[in-house]
Amino acid sequence: MREGRQFAQEQVNNLQAAAWQFELNPTPANRKLMNEMTIKVQQNKLAMYALQDYADEGLNSVRQSFNETLATFYHRADTLAIDRLSSMTGIPPGKIQILNASSSSQALMKRGRKVTIDRDWTAFYINSKGEYTYFDQHITEQVYNDSFF
Predict the structure, then answer these.
(1) Cα–Cα distance between 38 and 26 in angstroms, integer?
(2) CA-to-CA distance for 59 and 62, rounded, in angstroms?
(3) pTM to 2 decimals?
(4) Beta-sheet strands, E only, within 16-131
């Protein structure tokens, strides 16, 4: 377990270095490195817990960069998933809406004070009767995951 925590901390340190590098020199290569380090941390639950060490205010800027990078990934995945759901169902993309459940405050995430471990994603539309109609959760999860990865 100790090795796992040590590896997780190394991943957070690598993310921190990538964030600093990108901040100092925002080149495409440094953006790519930031993206890769963000994914590595996001995929490792122990690294996510290390990143969430809220007592360490030195991580605020790293958490902020991490959150901004994930937000870019999420936006891209949302767009792809909505387009895919539209093509599967015939519902126009502009009518499909997304509901994200998160226990994390968006304001705290923007300031780098908090990160969220995962993101729950549900899609719905309002039908011609004005009723909220939710897509099958198994389908939306698969479509979303395919769009994200």
Answers:
(1) 16
(2) 5
(3) 0.73
(4) 97-101, 120-126
